[in-house]
């Protein structure tokens, strides 16, 4: 029984899972939207959303912590200077998962699109009304 064992293993060992989610986080921050399985998308939120929250602090220590996950100075700069300011004043909900109707062709895994909620200004305008 899996009592008190949270999280999905996804058929990978811990180092492979860490590398998988680091690479998926990079792809999501670069492209703004990626297509993956529903399980991976749900777990990816736990990597990307804390990165954006970290980027809102905008200090040296936060940049170093973000670099540990992303491994790319240019991407860290983009995260802190372009992506995080879009979400200033928003406490969370930086990503959106939309389930796709068609499963993956090979193994019939349920697929989803995970994307950044880019229009943060529209969210603030709607909440003010």
From TrEMBL:
Highest taxon, organism lineage: Bacteria
Homology family: Belongs to the bacterial ribosomal protein bL17 family.
Name recorded for this polypeptide: Large ribosomal subunit protein bL17
InterPro entries referenced in this protein's UniProt entry, alphabetically: Ribosomal_bL17 (IPR000456), Ribosomal_bL17_sf (IPR036373)
SUPFAM superfamilies in UniProt: Prokaryotic ribosomal protein L17
Annotated keywords: Ribonucleoprotein, Ribosomal protein
Organism annotation: Taurinivorans muris
UniProt xrefs under Pfam families: Ribosomal_L17
């Amino acid at each position: 029984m899996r009592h008190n064992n949270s999280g999905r293993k996804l058929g990978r060992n811990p180092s492979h899972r860490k590398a998988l989610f680091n690479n998926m986080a990079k792809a999501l921050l670069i492209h703004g939207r990626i297509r993956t399985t529903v399980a991976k998308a749900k777990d990816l939120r736990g990597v990307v959303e804390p990165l954006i929250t970290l980027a809102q602090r905008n200090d040296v220590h936060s940049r170093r912590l973000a670099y540990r996950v992303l491994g790319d100075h240019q991407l860290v700069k983009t995260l802190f200077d372009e992506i995080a300011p879009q979400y200033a004043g928003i406490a969370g909900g930086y990503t959106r998962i939309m389930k796709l109707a068609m499963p993956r062709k090979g193994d019939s895994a349920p697929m989803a699109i995970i994307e950044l909620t880019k229009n943060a200004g529209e969210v603030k305008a709607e909440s003010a009304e």
